[in-house]
Structure formats: structure tokens, C-alpha cells
Amino acid sequence: MAEITLVEAVAMAQVRAMQDDPTVLVLGEDVGRDGGVFRATDGLLERFGPERVIDTPLAEGLIAGMSVGLAAQGFRPVAEIQFMGFVYPAIDQIVNHASRLRNRTRGRLSCPMVLRMPMGTGIKAPEHHSESMEAMFAHVPGLRVVIPSSPMRAYGLLLAAIRDPDPVIFLEPTRIYRAVREEVEDHGEAAELDRCFVLREGGDITLVTWGAMTRETLAAADALAEEGIHAEVIDVATIKPLDEDTILQSVGKTGRCVIVHEAALTGGFGGEIAARLADRGLLSLTAPVRRVAGWDTVMPLPRMEDLYLPSVARILKAARETVSYQ
Amino acid sequence: MKPETDIGTPDLDPRRYWPLLRYLDKAGAAIAPLPDGLDDRDILVSLYRAMVTTRTFDQKAVSLQRTGRLGTYASSLGQEAVSVGVGASMHKHDVLLPAFRDHGTMLWRGVTMTEILQYWSGDERGCDFAGPREDFPVAIPVASQATHAVGVAMAFQLRKEPRVAVCIVGDGATSKGDFYEAINACGVWKLPAVFVINNNQWAISEPTRMQTATPTLAQKAVAAGIAGSRVDGNDVVAVHDVVSRALDEARRGRPQLVEALTYRLGDHTTADDARRYRDDAEVSARWQEEPILRLRNYLVGRDWWGKADEEALIREVRAEVDRAAEAYLALPPQEPTAIFDYLHETLPPSLAGQRRMVEDGDG
Ligand SMILES: Cc1ncc(C[n+]2csc(CCOP(=O)(O)OP(=O)(O)O)c2C)c(N)n1
Question: Which value does ipTM take for this structure?
């Protein structure tokens, strides 16, 4: 079994989905001949031809809107938005149409589409290429928002997203597109959506995170272990709908929680998780829930992006304070 | 050679490049032989009947709104020829992607009056069309349905089905990027799609000249590399002819844009008062060229229609509309939990608690 990167796992899942189901189509800017600017659709055109791997005009509203039309007609479009910063022209289609087609037609029409896009910092890209706006999508009723954190989970979750009968926003953290390699078996099995993954067990504190921040969070857990603090690390994976039971169970055990995300603090999805803990887990908490997040600033240009990104040191500080809270 | 310094003013004379197709003049006299197939009493009477039905339905909907029994409603008064002409040109298996004023097209396609009333009363079940199962519900965000038509047309092309996606937008909608993105993509892929611009001269209070500096909207097709044409939208014969031909062309992979010139005789919606921005004189002048009278005059002139026909038709149509309104008013309400039940195919466990609260009346 080959060790592959996250972006290769994304490509592998798309190949598998297209092999298994002739209604799966891939579309987007440069997804065909070029194989995607990150190569996430590499090789698809050669394998499946231009009728199923479609290079679109440069128009994000079109990409999302035509996916709605294709999906309503029984296809399963997997559309790529080149970078998350360019998804905004497509928001109208996602919020006003994709997310609610099933609901507004009482199930007569549905919208089994996936909108994939790279998100987040870490590749020193130009302006508008590095935002993490997952909370914006999570706020929209009717959408699933999925963020893989490893090659294996990217493969399984993307297969699940493509097979899901409803629209899924699939956010791929560019920072870990190639940062780790993992053995991924092309077994064709989907991972479970709407479930958190417990990446590491521990009884002293729960660290909740998703996407690329799982790396810094796991590194922080390693460092904490050396200090004798055993952290449980949860990868939320599907942030909407949220599997709050897994998080509550963990916090029920540890009594302490730090939430880590790259997106800006205010209105970030960490606030939602903290609110759920306040609502249903307050009595098991022995310390206030802390959040370590990006600053409430415009995402800086590459020279300053490391300053923006929550560091292992910031996570450690918050975790130590939470554990020692009396 | 000297470079051309005068970039000049392009010749945009619409009469030269974008002739307006018309068969019946404003008074209903034929100015050209009617096209093959349409010079037929039964067909013309069916179009007439559909226009009268649409107008009668509109009047009913407005009066239901005025008496507090319907929500905000967008009437199609004066635009019946575009609406009906488009519907009558489509094949059953084509797919309609309508704007919110295209009741005549939807009725012709088999959406029921009860369903349309239900939708405008704020009940989602009105979009679960019993008839045209693949047609889209009306799009409220202007022009947003244009890109859906691209996907639908691409589905037809991929499956090699001889079907067409038919999208209707208003003149205001042509100002939006979606519209251009859609016609452009159809040109690139040669998709079986027809876009009909229902140019009723106004987008709420803004006249067409505040939407565009181009003398016609049909010419927007040029930039998309597709065919464009213009038709008198108050002449149902011309609309039927032009749109039918556009559909034939689209079925052969030649996407089409049709601008139909008509006029909104009513308010924008029941929440609007058009007198704030529009002269009475302008409106009453436009009543002289409205589509229903025009076709009736033609039919009467051919001895194909008389007073008795008219009276019988009015009786029948009123009865039909009244029955639909009664059926609408008698509909049982949706279950409160219905707001959860179509959100996803299966309800995510995390939402089950919220659904239970509504079920228990804790909402
Ligand atoms: C994107 C968007 N912006 C604003 C509105 C509010 N609005 C509803 S109808 C309308 C005017 C539409 O004009 P036009 O496209 O010419 O269609 P008409 O109403 O004349 O049939 C506006 C501005 C809307 N529905 N969608």
C-alpha cells in the first residue's frame, strides 16, 4: 500500500467515486487538462474524458449554480472552487439554492452536490488565498460542512460526501495537502459523516479541533504528555451537523476543554462548541472553556501569516492554564 | 499605415440588426401571413384561453391578497402572451426554470392554480408540483435560476436527450452576472438552453434604460456567442413562433436568447404601488396594445370567435379559478415538524432534539 498525501487521497476518492457511479461528474476551473491547481483532480480527465471532467469558464456563481441544475437532474457534481477566497460569488447559489432545494420542493428535487475547496493558511499564497470561513457555511441550514485532517480521512470523508444525497461543503486545508503521508487503502469505503474522530485518548483535558490545526494540537498534546498532562484530542471533521455527544462525553471525562481553530475568534465555530458545552456540559466542567483561534484581523499577507496562526505555544499556554484552573 | 484613431460609435440601430418579429399589429390585424401551424383556430383559441385563464387567475390571486388570504403576489397582468407563448412552445419533457412572474407558463406546464396559490401563501408544498416533476420552482433571487438552466441543459446534453432547459428572466435580471455567466457557458458548451427575457420595461421602479445602455437586450447574446432575437411580447403568435424556433435550434445544440418586449400593466407585486414611479398616461397608452384584446380582435376578425364564445369562456375560466381558490383555502396546514423533514434526506441526530421540541409544542 502506498503512502500518499492528503491531496492525492482527494484525487483517489474522486477516481473511486467516478468508477463506482457514472453519475459523478467533476467540474471547475482548470480541473481537466491541468488536473487542478493543487492537482486534486490529476489524471481524472485522461481516465474519464471531457464529458465527466469539465473545465468550466471562470465563473464561481456558474460553477455552483450549474451544479444545482445537474444535481436536480440526477447527476452528482463534485465541483472545485479554486481557493476559498473565491467562493463568495457562489454563496448566493449555495445559500439560496443548493442548501434548500430539497426543503423548498418538499423532496421533489434534491441537490446531491459536493463543493470542494482549499482553505486556510500555510502555503504563503497571495491575498485572498488563505482564509478559513467554515463558520459561514456552518451557519447555513441544510448544508454539511466537512473538513478532513489526514489523507485517510480525506479519502473516506470525500467518498461519503459524494455519496451523500444532500449538498456538502468539503474544505481541504492547504497547509496539510502535502505535509503528511499516510498509507491509504483504496477500499472504496466511506468514512462516517456527522461524527467526530478521537485522535488521541487522555483523561486530563479535551482538545477539540479540526482540519490543519490537528497537527499543532497533536504536537501540543505530545508536549503536555511530557509534563504528565494527558490530553484527549478530538477532530470534529464534520462541523455541521455537529456530533456534540462525542465532545460532551470526552469533556464529561476530563472536565476541561480547549477549542483550537485557525479561523478568526469572533463568530468562529469554536463559539458554537463552547455554547453547547455551556448548555449540556456545564456541570462536568471544572474550568472555563477556552478558545485558541486566529486573531480577529484580516488574514495577513504571507510574511505575517505565522503570527496569525494559532501556535503550539498558544495552545500549550491555554491548556496549562485550563488544567491548573482552581 | 496610420492607426485608426477614431474608435467611433458603434452602429447599434436595433431596427437594422435586431428586428422585432410581429404578426399581429396592436389592433390585432395580421401584418404578415401567420406562420405554418399557427394559422389554425383551435391552436389560437387554446392560446387565447390560456391567456384569459392566466389573467383571471391573477385577478383572483390579487383579490385574495387584498382580503388577507394570500401573501405578497407578483401579477403577470399584461404579460400573458410571453408567459403562455413560452409554455405552449415547450415540449412536455423540457424543463422550465421560471422567474416569479411566469404563472402562465407554469399553468400551461401543468402546475396547478392551487399549487401556485399555496406557494404565494407561504406553504412550501406548493413547489411539490404534481405535474411537471422536473420543473424548477420560481427563483426569487433575480437571475439566479439562469445558472441552474446551464446544469439542466448539460444533463440533457450528457444523456443525449432531445430536451431543452427553458429559463425566463426579467429585463432587470440581465444586469446580473448570473445571467451573463449562464448564457456565456451555454455558448461555450453549445447547450440545449433557451433564455427568454421577459422585458416588461420595468424592474420595480427602474426602467430598462437604467439597467443597460444597449438599445436591445437580445444583443447581449453576441458577447456570449449565441443567437439572439427579438419578438413583440404582446403578440402571442409571434412569441409562439420565435420561441418554438428557438427551442428547435437549442435542441440541435444551438443555445438561444429571445427578448420579448412587453409591458407590466400592474404593480410590481401586491406590496408595490407603481403610481409612485410611473405615469398613468404611460400605463393607459400601453393598455391599447395588450395581448389578450389583440388576439381576440384577430379571432373575431376571422369569424373564429364571437360574443357567445367569449361569455362561455369567461364562465368556465371563472369557475375553474374559483374551484382552485376554494381548494387552496380548504388545504390543511402542514405539520409543524415539516420544517425539519425535508432539510436533509435523513434528519441528522443533532437536529432530532430541535424537531422533538417542535413536536412537543415547545417551539
Ligand atoms: C438578487 C435580487 N435582488 C433584488 C431583488 C428584489 N427584487 C425583486 S423583483 C426585482 C425587480 C426585477 O426586475 P426584472 O428582472 O425586470 O423582473 P420583473 O419584476 O420586471 O418581472 C427586484 C429588484 C431580488 N428578488 N433579487
Answer: 0.93
| Confidence check: pLDDT of B1 > 60 | no
The 3-state secondary structure of B17-52 reads: HCCEECCECCCCCECCCCCCCCCCHHHHHHHHHHHH
**Ligand 1 centroid distance, CA of B268 (Å):** 9
The cell for B203 is 424592474
Quick one: which of A60, A35, A270, A77 has its CA closest to A168?
A: A77
Contact A62/B148, CB-based, under 8 Å?
A: no
B277 is catalytic: yes
Spatial contact of A304 and A209, defined as CB atoms under 8 Å apart: no
Supply the DSSP symbol for B2. Answer: P
pLDDT at B4: 53
What distance in Å separates the CA atoms of residue B254 and residue B130, rounded to the nearest whole number?
Answer: 31
For ligand 1, atom 13, the nearest C-alpha belongs to B203
Pairing type for strands B202-203 and B20-21 reads unpaired
**Tell me: the pLDDT tens digits for B97-117?**
999 999 999 999 999 999 999
CB A260 within 8 A of CB A208: yes
Whole-angstrom distance, CA of residue B57 vs CA of residue B45: 18
Identify the pLDDT of residue B363. 53
Nearest to A242 among B124, B185, B350 (CB): B350
Distance CA B92, CA A172 (A): 42
Distances in Å between the Cα of A76 and the Cα atoms of A21, A138, A154, B347 are 9, 21, 18, 20
B139 touches A88 (CB < 8 A): no
- Three-state secondary structure call for residue A235: strand
| Average pLDDT of span B310-322 | 98
CB contact under 8 A, A194 and B349: yes
Nearest to B295 by CA among B39, B45, B87: B45
Q: Is B294 considered catalytic here?
A: no
- Element housing B287 (H / E): helix B280-287
Q: Find out whether B174 and B212 touch, Cβ atoms under 8 Å.
A: yes
Task: Tell me the backbone φ, ψ of residue A155, rounded to 5 degrees.
Answer: -60, -55
Minimal-distance CA residue of chain A relative to B181? A62
- The per-residue DSSP string of A248-304 comes to HHHHHHHS-EEEEEEEESTT-HHHHHHHHHHHHSGGG-SS--EEEEE-SSPPPPGGG
CA distance A245 to chain B (A): 9
Q: Would you call A283 exposed, middle or buried from its count of C-beta atoms within 10 A (0-12, 13-18, 19+)?
A: exposed
- Among A147, A175, A149, A174, which Cα is nearest to A161's? A147
